[in-house]
Amino acid sequence: MEPGSRPRPEKSPGLCQPADRLRVSINNNIFTVDKSIAVDKCEFFRALLQSGMRECRTEEIQLRCVGCLGFRVLLQVLDGERPMLDSDQIVEAIECTAFLQVPALTNHLISIINSENCLLMYHTAATYGVWDLSHRSALFIRDMYSDLREHMQSLPTRLVEYINSLLPSSYMAVCSHSPSTEGLQDVQRTVCYLDESQSEWRVLTHLPSSISTTMAGVAVLDNNLYIIGGVHDVSKKVVETGFCYNPAADSWSTFSGTRQLRYNLTLIGHEGCLYAVGGEYSMKPLSSVERYALRGKSWSSVSPLPCPAASVMSAVAMSRIFICLWKGKGATEMYEYIPEVDRWLLVTTLVRQNSYGLYMVAHKDNLYVMRNRRCDDFLVCVMDCYNLSSGQWTTVSGQYSNSKGSLSTAVVRGDSVFTLNRHVTTEYTVDHHAWSLKRQMKGFGRIGSIYAFLMRLPKVTVSLTDNGDKVTQEETLTVPSLHPKPSPRTSE
Fold first, then answer.
1. Average of pLDDT values for 392-399?
2. Could you tell me if 329 and 205 lie in one domain?
3. What is the pLDDT of residue 96?
4. DSSP per-residue codes, 72-103
5. Is residue 305 included in any domain, yes or no?
6. pLDDT digits (tens, 9 = 90+) for 313-344
7. How far apart are CA 289 and CA 312, in angstroms?
8. For 52-89, how does the pLDDT look when each residue is reduced to its tens digit (9 = 90+)?
9. Helical axes 157-165 vs 118-128, angle rounded to 10°
């Protein structure tokens, strides 16, 4: 299998017979397309081939509204590949998905937004009216505002105004806490955000008394915070209810917990679903995985892990879910979960003697696995980088070593990664071959395990008065609309 490719659902016999193929002519270049895939994935071909008109029986059509580069990228994506693209390919791919209406291609373009192409993606997508891609690019730019400010001068004023109207991602953290007693508020039971301008951690909200974040699964999905599966105390009795915090409404709500009670699980939010991966129950590791669909508000079982595991390392890279399973003797296996076929696919194996994985983060098409350097030194960790496009491992130069404490967690935002422990919050500039120190800020001075994540907070000023009441001062936002410019090829 080529690097970056993924298995596709099996097709029924006879689906790829010559009669089911369509020749597409673009600028005197001929491409062959599987009709069934084209109808399933592309609105243009669906309308054309299911119209009942004579075009639906043709064996060759001519397209004048798209270019060859963009159409080649379309065919790659429909074939299950996940290619990284240069500037010319990006422009033509956006043009292609705009005219042919291909959600799979739009989603792929969203998955490869990065600091090198975000401005091009944003401007081109706004030009052709690909609004999901335009909006997601604008959010990425907003998160890297200070780094991209000068380059933004090349954008039309209306596009800059739209970026300025968006909420940036904030670095968030919560510690492990057991449920508290009603009426006895523990001031430490809080969700906090990093005020980067003041280098201070500030309280956003208090945890409800019945929530446990001890050995819980914590994830963000659609800008809501989800917490499930924590334990009450050393008895490991599991909290059966799930909790959700909505920052826009500044409110907590509950939802059903997993069918299989579990703690020490990994919770992943991805494309409208929560995934509860592995964990433990009654001190036994679990291999089961459950998925909670926000739309249906229900849990269902999906394909189990290849082996029982708790506290699984995970990351989402290029809109794909990856986990690492430690196999012992220094071996770490990386798997991808593919929702379309409900399957865990072994991607690669990393072998480092006397070492085990601590954390994993994603940046562009790279997955960084942080691990301890040797079994007797937990204040030092080193990194290995797996590139999804090349399928190659490299060791990242340098190492994380801090006399003020070991690495607790890490989160990537734009081209920066924040590492965090009780004593110091450190921001690094991420590069494939090395992470360079950018700045250091106040640590998260709480006891226990730390969960870190990103959320977009309403533009409010939040503080705590002496009596613990929350005081907010809201800002009013006028969000400009984005209007498409006419495409130079529209008249063809």
1. 84
2. yes
3. 96
4. HHHHHHHTT------HHHHHHHHHHHHHHT-H
5. yes
6. 999 999 999 999 988 777 899 999 999 999 99
7. 12
8. 666 666 778 889 889 999 999 999 999 999 999 999 99
9. 110
Domain boundary among 74, 93, 112: 112
Query: Over the Cα atoms of the chain, what is R_g?
Result: 24
Residue range(s) defining the domain that contains residue 90: 18-112
218/311 same-domain check: yes
The structure's pTM equals 0.87
DSSP for 296-307, please give it: TTEEEEEPPPSS
Residue that the structure tokens 């998925």 belong to:
291
Nearest Cα residue to 355 out of 379, 339, 376, 338: 376
Evaluate whether residue 376 is within a structural domain.
yes
- Same domain? For 228 and 360 the reply is yes
Q: How many domains does the chain have?
A: 2
Strand 21-26 and strand 60-62: the pairing is parallel
Cite the DSSP H helix spans in 366-477.
Answer: none
> Whose CA is closest to 325, among 349, 304, 302?
349
Tokens of 484: 């498409």
Distances (CA, A) of 378 to 329, 403, 434: 17, 11, 21
